[in-house]
Amino acid sequence: MSAELLQGSCHCGAVKFEVRTEIAPAGRCNCSLCRRKGALMTPRFPARQLKILSGEDALTLYQFNTQVAKHYFCKHCGIYPFHQTRTDPQQWRVNIGCLEGVDPYALEAGVADGASLSVLEDA
């Protein structure tokens, strides 16, 4: 599957973005945050392939554990559109549920063992 230019947004539309990425293989993570948010994520892609079109001021940042990964949420609707990865901060992933025209329920997904990367107990 090749990388395509996709449009995305949070639920309320305050945050709009475009990204050039593949959608498969889609993945989930078993770390404490990902287990709770349950998002299906794109494969990793370089930061330059994500462009925030509007609403950068509507994003809020959440970091935990090692404080390396950067998880972004819309401060209005609470939706999680994308994050900068912990294992390689130059790589990002997008929440497939935020992409226009993509059905996350039609994709098979693997599970990454993010829980084993935690340095704090139960993080």
UniProtKB/TrEMBL annotation:
<keyword id="KW-0862">Zinc</keyword>
<dbReference type="InterPro" id="IPR006913">
    <property type="entry name" value="CENP-V/GFA"/>
</dbReference>
<protein>
    <submittedName>
        <fullName>GFA family protein</fullName>
    </submittedName>
</protein>
<dbReference type="InterPro" id="IPR052355">
    <property type="entry name" value="CENP-V-like"/>
</dbReference>
<dbReference type="InterPro" id="IPR011057">
    <property type="entry name" value="Mss4-like_sf"/>
</dbReference>
<feature type="domain" description="CENP-V/GFA">
    <location>
        <begin position="6"/>
        <end position="123"/>
    </location>
</feature>
<keyword id="KW-0479">Metal-binding</keyword>
<dbReference type="Pfam" id="PF04828">
    <property type="entry name" value="GFA"/>
</dbReference>
<comment type="similarity">
    <text>Belongs to the Gfa family.</text>
</comment>
